[in-house]
Amino acid sequence: MASTSSRRCFGSTPVNNNSGSMVEPQQTGFSFTAQDNELLSSFDEEDELSVTPMLSMTHSGGGGGHFGFGVTPIPIISSASPTLVAPSSSSRTSDGIDDGMTMMEAMERNQQQLAQQQQQQQAYSSASLHEPLGVQDAGLMNAVDMLCDDMFLCKTDVLRQFARSRGIAGGSKVDVVIKLVQQAHKHAHGDSTDLSHTKRFLGGVFADEVRTSGLRSQWTNASLEASHVEMACERHAKFASMSNSSKKLMVRKASAESSRLLRRLTRPFQDEYQQLSNAAVGGVHRQFKEELDQLVDKWSITELVSPFCSYLVSSIRHTTSTNLMTRTEATVQLVQADIIRPTVEDGDASTLEQYMRLLEKVVDEVNRREIIYGDQRMNWGTDTGPVIMSSIASFEAAAAANKQFEFDEVPEWVQGYVKSFASWEAIVRNDIPLFADLPPRVFHALLLGVTCWKILTLIHGDAAKPSDIPRGYGAALKQSLIEFYLDDAKASDALNRLMAYVQAPSDRVRGGVTVRPEIFPCILQQLQSAFHEANDEHMPMRVALVFREISLTTSRCERAYGLLPLMVRLTEDLKFHLRFAEVFRHLNTKDRNTVRNSNVHMIKTLMYFEKELGISAPVSTKSTAFLVVILLYLSSRSNGTTTPAILERYASVTGRDEFGVVSLTEISATNIHELKVALPPQLSYSSWLQQGDTKEKTVYSVIPSTAVKGASNQAMLISQAPMMKALDAISRVPWRINKYMLHVQEAMIREGFGFGKIRPGFYPLHYCNMRDGTINHDSLDEPIYNTQQHFEYHKQQDTDWRNLQDTRSSRVHYLQALRQARSLVQFSHLYFPNSMDFRGRMYPIPGRLNHTGSDPFRALLEYAEPKPLGKVGLYWLKVHVANKMGMSKLSFDERVQYVDEHTEDVIRSAESPLHGEKWWQEAAEPMQCLMACKELADALKHSQGAENFPSRIGVAVDGSYNGLQHYSAIGRDAFGAELVNLVPSERPADAYTGILKEMLKSIQADSSRDHQVAQRCLGTGKGLDRNHIKRKTIKRPIMTQVYGVTGYGMSEQILDELVKQNAAHGLWTPTDMKEMAAYLREKVLDSLGVTFRETQLCRKWLSEVTELIWEAQPAETRNAFTWTTPLGLVVRQPYRVRKEHHLFTVHGYSRIPGDSVSPASRKQLSALAPNLIHSLDATHLAMTALEMQNRGLSMMAVHDSYWTYACDLPELSSVLRQQFVNLYDKYDPLWELKEQWEESFFMDLRRHGVKLPDPPKRGDLDLRVVLNSPYFFS
C-alpha cells in the first residue's frame, strides 16, 4: 500500500481568503457538489500503487475564502481489505458530536438511539421498516471512524444536503456517513450482485454466472460490461423518473418515436380528413365537425398532427413510478387474467364507431376535470383526490338514475373479489362503530385503492411496491371521511382506527393523519380471508369501478394505456396546447421569449393573455376531442399486410368500450442505446469480421455494434470491405495501464491544485472580492446602485461561474477516467473497439478512457506487448521526447541533440517527477513528456543496453497541416506543397509563417498608401505599439479555412486574438479591432490565393459545382450529396432541415418535430469541403493500417496522428508516404466527384439545362517527391 504519511487530510489544503493570504479550509464552510463526487479507489492490497480514493467537496464561498469547489481525499474500504491507515486526528467541533467524544463513542450512542427508534416502530407492519445501514455492518463502522476528521467537519445540514443529491436519506449524522461510504464503495468498484436494474430494463442479457463483484482479476468481458450496464440502467431509471414528472420533459424524451409516427399520420390525415369526419359525425355530431373544420383551416396539418404524436407517445411511455419501468408487458398479464382480449379487425367503420361512442364521455370527463384542477399547474392531468372522488360521484349518480351497468362477461375472480370486499365492508362496519354509518362512497374510495394494488401485483409481481400506488387514493379516502364528518379531528380518528384495524402504519402530521399507501396492501391481505357470502346492492356499480380502475392502473405502466383515459388525457393536453398556440401568435417578441425561456406558470399565463387579448372563444373541448378521435382511428388502422397499425387495441371482456386498452406497436422495451452506457474497454478482443450473421454483430456481448451504420455499410461488413478490415486492425491493438503514470496523476489529484489539462479542485470566484455597487443610506427608501460597479460585478460573476462550470465538467470527466484506469490497472491486456462515422473516420467506442483523449488520458496508456528498442528505437524515442517538449520545428538531429543536452533533466524528471526542478512540466504535452522521460531513463539504465530494452511506449508522428497537404496533393500545388512539407527540406516548413510573410508584404504596401487600418496593424514602432500581426493571430483562420469556415467566422477568430493582445496594451477601441479583423481576414484570403493557388482553385470549384446542383433541385425534395471513397465507402452527408413546431404544456414550453419529410439542409454545401478531406484522410489511414497489418506490424492512429513502437517508426513513416502517393497517384477526387454527381443528379441538371464545369487544371507538382520528404509526418 502507498504510504499515508504525505496524504493531505480533508481540510489540510491551504486556500486563499479575501485578502490574498492562505487559510485552512476547516476555517470556512464547505458544501458538497454531486457532479464532482467521483471516487477513485484501490482494489488490491497487493498492488504497490494502491492509493486512497477521493471525495470531492465544494466550497460554499463564505467565511473568508471564495471558491467553486475543492478536492480532498478520504479513506474508503477496499474490496480486498477494509483496513486502512487512518489520517491524523483533529478536534471534532461540528454539531452532533461533543468535544472530547470519539467517533466510535458517537456511533455507539447513535446505535442505541436507532435501536430505541426501531423498538418503537415494531408496532407497525414489518414491511415498512428497514434497519439503518451501519447497525449490522461492523466493518463499515470501523472504516467510518477514519472519516471523522473529514466528514464531521461539515455541518449536519450540509452533509444531509449532499446526501440527498446522491439519493440518500438518514436520520443521524453517523447513519448518513455510513450510507455515503457504502454508496462510494459501490460506485468505485461497480459491485452489483443481482443486476436488478439490468434485468428490469433489458431482461436476461447476462448469464447468471456473470461475476460483477469480488476480485477484478477474476472478471471477464461480460463482467466488466455488466457492471457498467447496471450503473447505466440505474441512472436511466432516475432520469426517466425525473422526466415523467413533467410533460415538457416527457415529450422531449419521446421526440424520436413521435417523429416516426408523424411520418405515418401526416399524409393519411391530409387525404382522408373530410371523408372520415363526414362518416364519423353522421347526423348527430355536426357541431363537433364544424368546430374542427375551423381548426383545420386555421392550422397546418403538421401543427395539428405533430402535438398529437408527441402526446400519444409520451403518454403511453409514461409511468408513475420507477418500479413500474420494466420489460413486463401489461397487456400480456391482463390477457392471461381474462380481463382483456386482442381485437380482431372487424372493419374500419366499427372501429370509428367505437371511438365516436366514447366522444361525449370524453368531453364530459375533460370538462369535469378542468373545473377541479383550476390553475394548479402540477396537478393538471393527474389523478388527485378530488378527481377520484368526482369519478366516484359520477358512478353513484348513474346508479341513482337507475342506469344499468351491463356487461357481456365478468371474470369469476372479479366477482369473487367484489363479494369479498362487500363481506369485509360488513365486518368493518360491525367491528368499528365509527364506520357503521359511513356512506358507501368511503368504501368505494377504498375499493379503488385496493384494486390499484391488486392489478399492480398482477402485472409486476413482487417488483411492485406500496409506494407505486398514487397518493391520490389516500387523499380521496381522507376527503370522503371529512365530507361525511365535517370535522377533521373525527376524520383523523376514524382513519387511525381503520389503519390500526388493518395493521397499517400511519404518519401524524400537523393538521391530522396522512394516509400511507401501505393501507391498501393490508386491506387486500384481509380480503383474502373474507367470505363471499355478503349480498351487495352496489355489486354492478362496483364491478364497473373495478374495471375502470384496471384501465387506469394499466395506464400507469409502461407501453400500455386504457382507451378512455388515453382519449381524456390527449384531449386535455391537445386543448391546452391549441389554446396557448393561439395566444402565442399574438404575443410580441419579448413575451414570446419569456414563455420560451422562463419558468412561468403556464395556466395562469394562458388565462391572463386570453383575457388581455380578448380571445373570447378559445378552442373548445368538443373540437379537440373529435380531432383526437380521427387521429386515433388513423393510428388504429393498418396500411396493408406489411405495415401494422400504430396502435394495438385490446377489448374488455365486459364488452364496454371505455374499459378497452391500447398499446403502441412501434414502442419496444427499453433499448440498450437509450441507456447511454459509459462503455468500458474490452479484456479480450473478438472481431466481428469473423461472425456470419449481420444481425448478431457485436463489439460487446450486449450492445449492438456501432461500427457499421446504414444498409450500405452493413453490406460492406458482409463483403469484408477494406474499410471494415482496417477498422478491425485498429481495434485489435492491445493496451494496458501505465502504473507509473497512474501513480503520478493520482498523487497530483490528491494535491488538488491541478496542472495542464488536469483541472484544479477549486476555482477562485473573483467577483466575491468586488463591490456590487449597492449604496445604502437611512434617507433612502430603496438602495441605489453605482451603475459601473454594478455592471462590472455582474459581468465578473457571469465569467467566474462559466469558468467554474467548465472547470467542474472537465474535472469530473477526468476523475471518471482516472477511476476507470485504477479499476483496470491489473489487467494485462485492454482493447478499445473502434467505430466509424459517415466519413470513415474512426473513433474508440469506450468514451471515458481511451487513446484519443487529451494529454493526461494518453499518458495513462501503453502497449501491452513490449518490443526491444533495437538500433534505431533509441533515436526515435529521443525524437518523441523532443516533440512532446514542443521542439517539433527543429530537424530530427537537432531534436536528438536537444534531448542529449538535457539527459540529466530527463532522468531527474523520471526519478522525482513531483520534486526538484520538474523539467518535464515545461513541455507542450507534459504528461506524455513525463511518460517518455521515464521510458528513456529506463532504457539508458537498462543492464543489457538500450537496444535490448523492452519498450511499450507509443511513439507518435503527426501530419503537417494535414488538410492543406491533401488539397496540395489534389491540385498538385507545388508552391503550397513546400509549405506543408510534401517536398523534401532540411528543416520542417511552417505554412503559417509563409502566409504571414505574404500578408505583411501586402499590409506594408497598403500602409505606404496611408491606409489607416493597415498602419494600425503595423503599429508606430514605439513602445508596445509594434509587431501586432503575429503567427498566432492568423493561425486559427488559416487552419479552419481549409475546412469551410465562413468569412464571418474568420473575422471572429481574428477578433478573439486581437482582444487578447489589446488586454496587454489597450491601444485599440472595439471599433478599431473590428475594422482590423475584417481587414486581416481579406489579407489572409488574398495570401492563401498566392501561396496555395491551386488549393484555392479546388475549393472554389467545389463551391461552384455544389451551388449549381443545389439550385437545380426542388427545395422540398433536395437530396444529400454523396460520394464513394477509393476504398468503397459510400459517404452520405446527414444534414437535413430540422423543422420544428412549438409545443405548450402545463409544465412549460418545448419544441417538437414539425415535418414528416426532411429535405437536405444548406449545411450540405458548407460542410462538403471539410467532409471530403476527412473522408480522404480516413482512406489514407485505412490504407496505412492494412499495409502495416500485412507486414505484421501494429499501429494506432487518431485522424492524422499515428503511433507505433519506436523500433518500427521508420517502417511506419515509409508506409505513410507510400500510401499517400498511391492514394492520389491514380485517383483524382475532383473528376470522380464530377462523374458521380452528374450521374446522381442527372434529371435535375437536365431539367434546368445545367452542365457541370470541369475541375481546374492541376499544378506541376511531382507527387512522388513525398516519398523522400522526411517531415511529411514528423
UniProtKB/TrEMBL annotation:
The keyword Nucleotidyltransferase applies. GO terms for biological process: mitochondrial transcription. Residues 1-24 are annotated as: Disordered. Its EC number is 2.7.7.6. It is an enzyme of class 2 (transferase). It catalyses: RNA(n) + a ribonucleoside 5'-triphosphate = RNA(n+1) + diphosphate. One of its GO terms (molecular function) is DNA binding. The keyword Ribosomal protein does not apply. Residues 867-1243 form the DNA-directed RNA polymerase C-terminal domain. Keywords: DNA-directed RNA polymerase, Nucleotidyltransferase, Transcription, Transferase, Transit peptide. One of its GO terms (cellular component) is mitochondrial DNA-directed RNA polymerase complex. Belongs to the phage and mitochondrial RNA polymerase family. This is DNA-directed RNA polymerase.
